[in-house]
Amino acid sequence: LSGMPWDKFQAMSLEEKGRRLASAARLFHVLYAQQFGRAELDRLGSLATTIRFVAKTEGGARFLHDLLPHRRAMLYFSQPSTRTFLSFCAACEILGLGIGEVRDTATSSEFKGESKEDSVRTFSSYFDLIVMRTPMGGLAERMAWILSNSDRPVPIINAGSGKDQHPTQALLDVYTLQRSFERRGGIDGKRIVFVGDLARGRTVRSLAYLLTNYSDVDLWFVAPPQLQIGADILEQLDRHGVKYTLTDDLHGAIPGADAIYMTRVQDEWDSEAGESARIDTSRFCLLSKDLDRMKDDAVIMHPLPRRNEIPTEVDTDPRAVYWRQMRNGMWIRSALIASQFGQDDRIREYAAEHKLHPVS
Ligand code: NCD
User: Fold this and answer.
1) For ligand 1, which residues put their CB under 6 angstroms from it?
2) Torsions phi, psi for 224 (to 5 deg)
3) What is the spatial order of strands in the sheet that 191-195 belongs to?
């Protein structure tokens, strides 16, 4: 992004922006799902698995921990987070990075009127990576542009921006799908059914885009009409020739699904009090009685946190993978950070030398 005027950058489509980021010699900013192509998704998934195997052994864990002790990450989370925050902390610890955090802007100089831009530049003085989650759509992108055009460019990872993007969640979701369908020919040809608040769920928006990288996927969007997926995402699916179905009939969607991706109502985005409460979402829950109608080898996913859309009885069904999905976040985020700091080859070499699976 350096040397590119902001206006010109802003005028580009998301896919053009994605291509621009993907053209760098090495992964730097992580801002949009649109920057990841199939080869990169395969590479990151395989690296995450390698890290997972290396981290299992005591020597391997020590090796990983010694990779980046000279680097520090700033976790700037001005929006609630448990999993994303903790998994980034864990990923940094696995790779030996030090961590700083701001989770409440009331405790930072933003409270004294400092602009977000100045705050982020301040972080870049002390840290080598900034992971940020904010309620403002587009903020991570703006910060990345500012830093790339400063004298201390440090990478930004978008850990959730507004209602628009959550690329690292989409990466962990793809990694979960890769693992779930490992022995069934991979993600190609699978039917993924998204359920819930698809209008304001940024995880669905980012994941739906990542799935355009796979052939013959069939996406179903199951939501009440008011919460149905945005036209901008459908346009992107059309451009990539991805088949999709919009419906409000979860019952009818269950038997054909290879993966059911449940989401909660995102009522923190309501434009007036009670807006979501007026929508009948009771039909968008996956109940124990639905399990018999699912394929035996289908998987149930959820980015979490959940509310009532998956009752806890479902957790013990072997097809419920959402807890594993959450743990996958730690591995894929480790793979991302290792790649940003150019440590991927070293990790692969270590795994090969010590015959830790997989070595490819
Ligand atoms: C999601 C988010 O923040 O968008 N949570 C997460 O990162 N796992 C989903 C949600 O909040 O519903």
Assistant:
1) 83-84, 160, 166, 169, 202-203, 263-264, 303-304
2) -65, 150
3) 243-247, 218-222, 191-195, 259-262, 299-301
Is the predicted pLDDT of residue 306 greater than 90, yes or no? yes
DSSP 254: S
Q: What is the pLDDT, as a whole number, of residue 360? A: 46
Helix residue ranges per DSSP H, the chain? 6-11, 14-22, 38-56, 58-65, 83-95, 116-126, 139-148, 167-180, 202-210, 231-239, 250-253, 322-340, 344-353
In the structure, how many helices (H) and strands (E) does the chain have? 13, 9
| CA of 203, closest atom in ligand 1 | 4
Atom of ligand 1 nearest to the CA of 83: 8
DSSP state at residue 30: B
Range 171-174, long-range pairs (CB < 8 A, 24+ positions)? 171/36, 171/41, 171/44, 171/210, 171/332, 171/336, 172/325, 172/328, 172/329, 172/331, 172/332, 172/333, 173/203, 173/207, 173/210, 173/261, 173/301, 173/303, 173/325, 174/41, 174/45, 174/207, 174/210, 174/211
User: From the CA of 13, how far away is ligand 1's center (Å)?
Assistant: 25
Q: What average pLDDT does the chain have?
A: 95
Indicate if the pLDDT at residue 129 is higher than 60: yes
50 within 8 A of 356, measured Cβ to Cβ: yes
Distance 348 CA to ligand 1 centre (A): 31
For 7-24, the pLDDT digits (tens) are 999 999 999 999 999 999
CA of 150 to the centre of ligand 1 (A): 31
For 286-315, give the DSSP string.
Answer: --GGGGGGS-TT-EEE--S---SSS-GGGG
**pLDDT band at residue 359, thresholds of 50, 70 and 90?**
very low
Examine the pLDDT at 287 and tell me if it is beyond 80: yes
